[in-house]
UniProtKB/TrEMBL annotation:
It comes from Anopheles melas. Its cofactor is Fe(2+). Keywords: Fatty acid biosynthesis, Fatty acid metabolism, Iron, Lipid biosynthesis, Lipid metabolism, Membrane, Oxidoreductase, Transmembrane, Transmembrane helix. The lineage of its organism: Eukaryota, Metazoa, Ecdysozoa, Arthropoda, Hexapoda. This is Fatty acid desaturase domain-containing protein. Belongs to the fatty acid desaturase type 1 family. One of its GO terms (molecular function) is stearoyl-CoA 9-desaturase activity. One of its GO terms (cellular component) is endoplasmic reticulum membrane. GO terms for biological process: unsaturated fatty acid biosynthetic process. It is found in: Membrane. It comes from the Eukaryota. The chain crosses the membrane at residues 76-97, 193-211, 326-346, 358-377, 440-460. Residues 1-11 have a biased composition (Gly residues).
Amino acid sequence: MNGRPRGGGARSDGRRNRRKGTRTFVSFTSSTTAARARSTFPRPVFPNSGIPEPQTCPRLLTPISLFFSSAARLPIAGFFVGGCAGFGVTGGVHRLWCHRSYKAKLPLRIILMCCYSIAGQNTIYDWVRDHRIHHKYSETNGDPHNANRGFLYAHVGWLMLRKHPECIKKGRLIDMSDIVSDPVVQFHHKNFVLMKLLFCFILPTFIPWYFLGETFLMSFFSQCFVRYVLSLNFTWLVNSAAHLYGNHPYDERINPAENRAVSVVAMGEGWHNYHHVFPWDYKAAELGNYSVNVTTFWLDVFAKIGWAYDLKEPSKDLVRRTIEKYGFFVGGCAGFGVTAGAHRLWTHRAYKAKLPLRIILMCCYCLSGQNSLFDWVRDHRIHHKYSETDADPHNSNRGFFYAHVGWLLIRKHPECIKKGRLIDMSDVLADPVIQFHQRYFMALKILFTFLVPSMVPWLFLGEPLYLSFLANCLLRYVLTLNFTWLVNSAAHIYGNKPYDSRIRPAENRAVSIVSMGEGWHNYHHVFPWDYKAAEMGHYSVNVTTFWLDVFAKIGWAYDLKEPSKELVRRTLEKYGDGTHITAPIGHLKEVPEQETTKSR
C-alpha cells in the first residue's frame, strides 16, 4: 500500500513508503511539492500516527490552494495582507480614531487594531496625534509633513528628520482624551512592539510558507519587504502627491487636491480636497464609489451588521453649495480674463505684466468665450476714441438693446470699419501671447469655454454630464457674456456722472458688482489709463483691482498707472455733475495720459 505503515517496520521500508506517498501527492500539484523540497527549512515527519503531515495541511486549511496555481498564491496573499493593512489605516486610525467619522463596537475596533498592526506604522496614539495636528495646522511649520517643503519631505523626509519645534509645541495642545480612554488603543500602545513584530512580520511570513507551500525566503522577502514597502508608500502618497497634484473643486485655497491615482492605491484616501473640507465624512469623499474607495465598502458592510454605526456625512445641500462655488470660480476666472486682461492690460496699457501673468490672463479670457483678443482690443479702442458716434461699435445712442447685444447681430457701420483700420495695434501684434491666441483661437475657445468647464464637474464632482454641460456651457456662459455686455449698455445709459456730465458713460454700482469693477464707467472714460478703472478701487465692488494688487505684490504686475489725487480733485471741482460727495458740477473731456502718476 502507499500509506505509512501502522507498525514499526524496517527503516528502509518506511522511507520507501513515504517516498511512494510523496509521489502520489506530487501527481496532484507537483510544483508545490517541488517548492517545498527546495526549502532550506525541512518540515518534520510524523511516523506511525494518523495525523497528516504538514505538507497535506494546505488541502485541509486553505481552500485557496485548490483554485489557484502556486505562482498566483503569493500575490493573492500579498493583496489580502496589504488590503487588511490598508483597511486598518484608512478605516481605523484615520476615519475612526482620528476624525471620529463613525462609531465602532468592540469587535470591529479589535479587528481594526490588528489590521493596523499589519501596516507596521507608528502607535495608534502617535498616528492620530500627528494627523490631527496636520489637519489643524496644514501646510505650516506646525504640520508634521508640510507639503510646502517639497514632495520628498511630505512623502518620507519628515520621518527622517526631527520635528519642527512648532510641530512639537502644537502637538502638546491637541486633545487626545478620547484616544487615551479607548481600551483597544491602550492595549495597542502597551504591546506596540510585540504587535508590530507579530502582525507585520511574523504572521505574514509564516502563513505563505507553512500553508501555501512557499519557500521561507520568498515568503519573507515578499511580505516583509515588497508588501511592507508598498503599503508604506501608498499611505505616504496621501501626504505628498494628494497635497501637490490634482484639482480643487471644493476649496481652491488649500493644497490638498483630488487625486484619482492616489485614491486607487490608498483605498479611497485620494479625494483629499473634499476630505480637508469635510474631514468628518466617513467616506472621505463625496460620492464614495466603491471602485475607488474600498474602505467605504467595508464600512458599509460592517454598518449592515451593526458593528459600525453613526456614520457621519455632510448634507447634500452643503456639498451642493460647495460645488456651486466651482461655477463662481470659473465665472470669476473668465471675468478676470476680460477685465484685467483684454480691457485694462491689452487695451488701455494701464499696467505691465510679466509673461506668466499674461499667459494666465489669456487662459482666463478664453473661458469667457468672446472674440479673439485682437478683435476685442481693436473694437474697444475704437469705442473709447469715437464713443457714441457711428464709429463706435456699440454706440449707446442707438438704444439699450443695440449697445448690449444688437451690435454683434448685424454688420458694423461703415464708419466703424473705416476707423478701425486707423487704430494702432502694433503693441498688440508684438505680444507673443496674443499671437498664440490668435493662431489657435478656435481650439482654445472650444477647450476653455466648453470642454474643460463641462468635464471637470462630470469627472471629479459626480455631476451628470448633461447637467454639467447645461450649467457651464449655457447658464455660466450666457451670464458671463451678459455681465460684460452690461458695461456697454447699462453703464452707458443709467447712473450718475460725477467726473464728466456731458458724456454718456455713468457710474453704476450694480454693473460694477457683476462685472468685477467695470461699472464705474464715467470715471473710466475720463481716466481710461487708471489700472483700477475707478477712483477708489474698493475691493468689494472691484474684485479685479484686488487681484491686480496681489500680482503686483509678487512682481508679476508692475508700473500700475493711476492719476494723482490732485488731478482727480481738480477734475471734480471743475467738471463734475455734483453727485460726488466732494465735487461741484463741471465738465471734462478725457484727461491726457501725460498727467498720470505711477503707483508702483
